[in-house]
Specification:
This protein has 4 helices and 15 strands. The protein is of the alpha+beta class. Strands 8-7-9-14-15 form a 5-stranded antiparallel β-sheet. Strands 1, 2, 4 and 5 form a 4-stranded antiparallel β-sheet that branches. The protein has a 3-stranded antiparallel β-sheet with strand order 3-12-11, with no helix packed on it. Strand 11 and strand 12 form a beta hairpin. It is globular.
């Protein structure tokens, strides 16, 4: 069941989103060649300690999973799409890094992600990152009352197709707010007018994920998801509130 958020809930989610975008913006500023993924995770923990929020991913355990997530952020490199662990790996020129962060402010959750090129990256990588970023904006433009989940999905898929990239079909966006993952799922492919109708009070994590290859993925031993045949991937995410007149991006300044 989809949970609609009240005005009181929305005020709390705005604070959560504000904290999250500050944390993510600071991480982006410190992401550069020679920095380790573990150092970024340490920084994220320090940044959250200076707020009234907690890192939502730390200790998170999805239903049916025996292990909880051991880090504050997800750092997914190159062919890895999401859920990459921030290990000792040091960033080097040409890497494509996805940073995914969640904030838990007094039980109110927001979610955001960005893809960053490290140093000089290939033209193909630049195009992939730009296309995925555009897909997020195009998907958000369809997130308004009276539209459908399928309208968001179609806009994202069309951006991938027009740019010559593949949608990662087995991973989706989702509802968010009272929990880190809520209904509905938001596929990154679909048809206009299909799926659940959008209404004010819905809060959605819209997150296009594109691959330079086929879009097929595998789950690795560490729980992360990566392109099956290798190749670069990109991921962007915003937490979006459906309002009476359109939408409000609760994590807007982060990306």
């Amino acid at each position: 069941m989809v949970s609609l958020k009240s005005e009181k809930d929305i005020k709390m989610l705005r604070i959560s989103g504000r904290i999250l975008r500050k944390v993510l913006s600071n991480l982006v500023e410190n992401t550069k060649e020679g920095v380790s993924l573990r150092a970024l995770d340490t920084l994220a923990r320090e940044l959250f300690r200076g707020t009234d929020a907690k890192p939502a991913f730390l200790g998170y355990r999805p239903a049916g999973n025996p292990n909880s997530y051991p880090a504050a952020i997800c750092t997914s490199l190159n062919s890895t799409v999401v859920h990459g662990l921030p290990l000792k790996r040091v960033l080097k020129k040409g890497d494509v890094l996805k940073i995914d962060v969640g904030a838990n402010y007094k039980g109110f959750y927001t979610d955001a992600a960005i893809t960053i090129g490290i140093g000089a990256i290939s033209p193909r990588a630049q195009k992939l990152i730009k296309a995925t970023s555009n897909a997020l904006l195009n998907g958000i433009s369809e997130a308004k009352p009276g539209n459908y989940i399928g309208d968001i999905s179609y806009a994202i898929e069309k951006t991938a197709r027009d740019s010559g990239f593949s949608v990662i079909r087995d991973l989706t966006g989702h509802g968010v707010g009272f929990y880190l993952h809520e209904e509905p799922n938001i596929p990154n492919f679909g048809r206009r007018g299909e799926g659940m109708r959008l209404e004010p009070g819905m809060v959605l994590a819209i997150e296009p994920m594109f691959g330079a290859g086929s879009g097929r993925i595998i789950q690795k031993a560490d729980g992360s998801f990566a392109a099956q045949a290798g190749g670069l991937t990109a991921h962007f995410d915003h937490t979006v509130l459906i309002t009476k007149k359109g939408n409000e991006i609760l994590t807007s300044d982060a990306l």
